[in-house]
TrEMBL record:
GO terms for molecular function: hydrolase activity. It comes from Arthrobacter parietis. Keywords: Hydrolase. The keyword Hydrolase applies. PANTHER family: ALPHA-AMYLASE FAMILY MEMBER, NEUTRAL AND BASIC AMINO ACID TRANSPORT PROTEIN RBAT. This is Glycoside hydrolase family 13 protein.
Length: 562
């Protein structure tokens, strides 16, 4: 991380700077609001793949507790734990059968309480996942709805409709599931005859709740209070844009995810982004305000453009929202510069922090995604992109294993895949299993130390030895130590609460260059070597980054200017 100069002489893509570089007027100014979530670093834990303490091949809450000190070493503010509730695991725990209990796979409520107590000792806040759009078909409320029949109060908790066409044999509308196929499944009556259809925007085992029903609102306020009473700091809200559906459930010809596509603007999607959703989150914000401390809501809201997304983070609603425009940015300086500019302008317009994220459990890890089928290039770019992200003002989300430079596991045998996307599309869409593979902890132990006696629920690649955490801890140039150093500097220099001004001389180049407080950040996204201004390199994505004022492609540096 802290570099020694090497003698390098290469043709510059940008002229060397003998004087201090020029910067545009600040796009974003430093804030003095000390609310922790405005500049937070939050680490996502996917519990099934984090650490298996009892050796059954499944990660568990006790495993998280045992390794929390490793996360504290990263200078994070909080962990966000993906669902650990009672679930048949048809969709990685996002099919919840009981929102107020722990699945035996992960442990018990007592294990959860031990986890939060240990996190508190280490100064780490705990955020839990909340899945309010849908539940599991094994949830008692849905089972009661099936038994009660059409027109009942029980069925009113979900979205049941009669079919269309002869004998109601066609779905109520043409909506498609995120996971492929129709978003409707037909039920059977007690006598075995075909019955009504129920809506599921995801898997058929995940019926959507009916948020037009006040009883659904009351049920989720009960769930919020249950976890707030157990001292959680807040909630990451899954599919936060989907709860309310348009009246009449009209047909839709656009993408199943409701995002913009040719001829079908995303704001017209009848299953997403309805204005009544915002009243739900205003109420939730007031519930959180009843509790001590700075409790937060973060929206997973696939809404475009950014000018619409910020409606979720106005002062009386969510505190944060995931920035999917940034998550999906290509390796292109002009496009990335535009996304950062648009993000800061949009979120600043409602006095909310933007968030920055490069990987999560639903997308290909950025060490693979940015590599264009070249693992070495992918890791180089991932390290550079991560270092640049950690210097941006606002909040940062990290996904477990990215600090190890983990790629996706691309060669999982078909018979071992578990993602419903893979299953529902007959393998046409490979799904998300590759980013959910169990973590490597110790190189010389079976299964890289993930579990004590057995392999994981998904297979690990055979070449992860050098990526194991214990190996990387002793290597000063490892990706793990890059993250450790950069995160410590981010906190020390208050970059999350800082400013951003674009460097004027780099605006029309393949280089991202900006000033945050008194730190200049430069990332080379081009194919030629570039010169950087004179100054002290305080962080670099690679040992050679910034040496003698030269920045090679796929490298990033932080510089204190002379």
């Amino acid at each position: 991380m802290f570099l020694m100069p090497n003698a390098v002489s290469l043709a510059p893509a940008v002229s060397a700077q003998s004087v201090a570089p020029a910067f545009h007027e600040p796009l974003h100014t430093a804030h003095d609001d000390d609310a922790w979530w405005r500049s937070s670093v939050i680490y996502q834990v996917y519990p099934r793949s984090f650490r298996d303490l009892n050796g059954d091949g499944q990660g568990d809450l006790a495993g998280i507790t045992a390794e929390l000190h490793q996360l504290a070493d990263l200078s994070i503010d909080a962990i966000w734990i993906s669902p650990f509730y009672t679930s048949p695991q048809r969709d990685g725990g996002y099919d919840v059968a009981d929102y107020c209990d722990v699945d035996p796979m992960f442990g018990t409520l007592d294990d959860f309480d031990k986890l939060t107590a240990r996190a508190s000792e280490l100064g780490i806040k705990v955020i839990v996942d909340l899945v309010p759009n849908h539940c599991s078909s094994e949830h008692p409320l849905f089972k009661a709805a099936l038994t009660a029949g059409p027109g009942s109060d029980e069925r009113a908790m979900f979205i049941f409709r009669d079919g269309t066409g002869p004998d109601g044999s066609n779905p109520p509308n043409n909506w498609q599931s995120h996971f492929g196929g129709s978003a409707w499944t037909r039920t059977l009556n007690d006598d075995g005859t075909p019955g009504q259809w129920y809506l599921h925007l995801f898997d058929s085992s995940q019926p959507d709740f009916n948020w037009d029903n006040p009883a659904v609102h009351a049920e989720f306020e009960r769930i919020l209070r249950f976890w707030l009473d157990r001292n959680v700091t807040g909630f990451r809200v899954d599919v936060a844009h989907a709860l309310v559906k348009a009246d009449g459930l009209p047909d839709w010809g656009g993408r199943p995810d409701g995002c913009s596509s040719d001829g079908y603007p995303g704001h017209a999607a009848p299953m997403f982004g309805q204005k009544e959703i915002h009243d739900i989150y205003r109420r939730w914000r007031s519930v959180l305000a009843e509790y001590d401390g700075d409790r937060i809501l973060c929206a997973e809201a696939s809404i475009d453009p950014l000018s619409r997304l910020v409606n979720w983070v106005r002062h009386d609603q969510m505190h944060q929202a995931f920035n999917f425009a940034y998550l999906h940015h290509p390796w292109n300086a002009a496009e990335l510069r535009g996304i950062i500019t648009d993000s800061l302008q949009a979120f600043d317009s409602v006095n909310a922090p933007t968030t920055w994220v490069l990987s999560n459990h639903d997308v290909t890890r950025h060490a693979t995604r940015l590599g264009e089928n070249n693992p070495e290039v992918g890791l180089d770019r991932a390290r550079a992109a991560s270092l640049a992200m950690l210097a941006l003002p606002g909040g940062v989300y990290l996904y477990q294993g990215e600090e190890l430079g983990l790629p996706d596991h691309l060669d999982i045998p078909d018979e071992q895949r578990q993602d419903p996307t893979f299953i529902r599309t007959g393998g046409e869409r490979v799904g998300r299993d590759g980013s959910r593979v169990p973590l490597p902890w110790r190189a010389d132990e079976p299964h890289y130390g993930f579990g004590s006696t057995s392999g994981g629920w998904l297979p690990q690649p055979e070449d992860w030895y050098t990526l194991a955490r214990d190996v990387q801890q002793t290597d000063p140039d490892s990706t793990l130590n890059l993250y450790r150093s950069a995160l410590a500097l981010r906190k020390q220099l208050r970059l999350g609460a800082g400013s951003l001004s674009w460097a004027a001389d780099y605006m029309d180049t393949d280089i991202i260059a900006f000033l945050n407080n008194d730190v200049m950040v430069i990332m080379n996204m081009g194919e030629s070597d570039a010169y950087v201004p004179s100054g002290t390199v305080i962080a670099g994505s690679h040992a050679d980054a910034g040496a003698e004022g030269v920045l090679a492609p796929n490298r990033c540096v932080w510089i204190k200017l002379n």
